[in-house]
Design goal:
This protein has 8 helices and 14 strands. The longest helix has 15 residues. The chain is α/β, with parallel strands linked by helices.
């Protein structure tokens, strides 16, 4: 059990349900924090409790709008000025992670920029889950605990009745996670070879591996516009597969994603609550699993100086 005297949990406005769930599991009340806007849209944050010498954990995903990042930075900076001992940014979904390298001239490596901003604001540690590219951890000058959603999803997916299961990576970037899950499930592995003509649009070219007559699970780190998932599912269906399931840690679900997924041959779409979609009209295709247990246990292990490595299993 955590020492409530030395631990403070602050929740930003990007995902209040997840923040409340984490605090409840840790048996630590959320810190009284005021977050509001001025009439011109600028943010104001104030921590209304004494946090001097405390270990502060700030829970805030950085999905759009960009104000979520600004709010996180302000909460970190306010905690630093309030003399918090340690400040951990708990970022279930780390936004801008796709901008992790310079693929074209004169573009920003924004993942590195965000890492620098978190350090400059005063964060002493970061907890996050399913980074778009694991090497982003190297962008930070502070410790990063990179958790894998496999801990959350594997048990659920193992309960789904399937026939000659194959795990499918929708692109080469997700091969490691798909391969690890295929090993756990004693399943085959296939890869979608795709080309992306423009940003946020995916064109499936061909499938590497045997899927005909097999049920498949598409495994990725996020679903944004759902173009990748919908096109992959269509290609798999055309290649004679059985039932199709999709699983991703982060349900960004922008643009026409809900329509694409609902109209796709995918049976179920399994995501986490790293991004708050509670106010959206998700169809019964969607299964949302909470990552509160994973994050709460990681916070508890950090606070009690226990090993966190068990949480890194992928």
């Amino acid at each position: 059990m955590l020492n409530n005297k030395h631990v403070r949990i602050i929740c930003g406005t990007s995902n209040p349900p997840l923040g409340y769930a984490i605090a409840r599991k840790l048996n630590v009340p959320l810190c009284n924090t005021e977050i509001r806007r001025f009439s011109d849209g600028e943010l104001f944050v104030q921590i209304n409790e004494n946090i001097r010498g405390a270990n502060v954990f700030i829970i805030q995903s950085t999905n759009p709008p960009g104000d979520n990042i600004m709010e996180l930075l302000m909460l970190i900076e306010a905690s630093r000025r309030a003399s918090a001992k340690n400040i951990t940014a708990v970022i279930p979904y780390f936004g801008y992670a796709r901008a992790d390298r310079k693929e074209m001239p004169r573009v920003s490596i924004t993942a590195k920029l965000v890492a620098d901003l978190l350090f400059a604001a005063g964060a002493s540690r970061v907890i996050t889950m399913d980074l778009h590219a694991a090497q982003i951890q190297g962008f930070f000058s502070i410790p990063v605990d990179h958790l894998y959603s496999s801990i959350l999803f594997n048990g659920y997916l193992q309960q789904i009745p399937t026939n000659k299961l194959v795990i499918v990576s929708p692109d080469v970037g997700s091969i490691k996670v798909a391969r690890s899950f295929a090993k756990i499930m004693h399943a085959g592995l296939a890869i979608i070879d795709k080309r992306r003509p423009v940003q946020n649009e995916a064109e499936v070219m061909h499938i590497i591996g045997e899927v005909e007559g097999h049920d498949v699970i598409l495994r990725d780190d996020m679903i944004d516009t759902a173009g990748t998932m919908a096109n992959a599912a269509k290609a798999l269906q055309e290649n004679g597969c059985g039932k199709i399931y999709a699983c991703a840690a982060h349900g960004v679900l922008s643009g026409k994603s809900l329509e694409r997924l609902d109209n796709s041959p995918i049976e179920k779409v399994i995501i986490s609550d790293s991004i708050d979609n509670s106010g959206r009209n998700l169809s019964n295709k969607f299964v949302v699993l909470s990552c509160a247990d994973i994050l709460a246990e990681t916070i508890d292990r950090i606070e009690t100086d226990a090993s966190v490595s068990i949480m890194f299993s992928d």
